[in-house]
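User: I'm putting together notes for a lab meeting next week and I want to include a structural view of one of the chains we've been expressing. I don't have a solved structure, so I'd like a prediction I can at least talk through. The sequence is below, exactly as it appears in our construct file.
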Amino acid sequence: MAFPDRRTLNVLLTTLLFAVAVAIVYVARTVIVIFAFSILFAYLMNPIVRFLQRHSLFFKNLRGPHVAEAYLALLILIGSIVHILDPQFVPRLGRLIRQSPAVMENVYSGDIAITMGQRNGWDEAQSQRAKAFLQQRRESIRGVVESVRQFVSVAFGGILMIPILGLFFLSDGDKLANGVIHLISTGETYETARALAADLNDMLRHYVRAKVTLAVLSLIYCSVTMVFLGYPHALALGLLAGVLEFIPIAGWITALIAISTVGLLTHSHWIWMAALLGLWRVTMDYWIAPRVMGHELEIHPLLAIFTVMVGGAVGGIVGIYLSVPIVAALRVIWHRFASPTAHNPSRLDLPLTTESRDLPRFGHSSDE
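Assistant: Thanks for the context. Below is the predicted structure for the 368-residue chain, given as structure tokens.
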């Protein structure tokens, strides 16, 4: 049997390494997604940190205290919105957590149907049919509840990890970027890697700026609309809608439920508000967002719509959120290698520190 030649061995080895890399990415996809969202969160917080650092009377040369100030301001904002909308939110959440095991046992046994029947005036036959229905599907209901519980625990853990990891990117991002560039590049490719990192950094800043623009537009639209419809806490609900704009699909659905619930409980025009929010969602998804993203990332609005749809089909909510920056990154990589002399970067200003001077970035960036 003839031994394969060197070229064949190289092809086989390359294929094997690519397969191993794909397998590792698939297995560690949750961790990779959390790190990706942490980087985007760091880019979102970085302008606030830089503003505080520039206008501070103390510690101008230190970044850590201003990172802590930015995080504290974010916690105060979230806490204020929650307190304005529902001052008893924390006690109610605690009671819900404590009572959830007993409630689920009532669901599994079907006894909750009897309780609901008594509250809603059902006759005995209706209550018994509902109880039998729940008892017959006990295992299916248990499986759905367990799946939801696992998803919530994973999502909650990821939400907690994102700002924690974001601290590291905000504090030592330049050092991390330098380390990655040195790791993946050689002496001949070092300058190219630095230039590519500058382009990707600029792209991510424009992507986050586009997301902030969309959030501000949602805040203004929802707040003004609720003021005209006589909603209470219009500004707080508008802030909530703006913040939730950063979360695809689940964010605007949560905002819709919260705003409609407040309108229903306060006898406001919640039906009109729900219809206007639906109209806004269609306008945002198919007209405003593609144009804002297209302008910031220099991609056609139709391509942005197509990218989001494909991302949702492939990766669900995560795919919707990360599809546009992934395509924009591929575009940056293509342009960098297709025309390596097209740019003239000077220093990379990642959302980490502003002290490093050995990494490049666009000298003509409009973000500065």
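A couple of points you could mention at the meeting. The mean pLDDT is 79. The chain is about 80% helix and 0% strand.

User: Perfect, that's what I needed.
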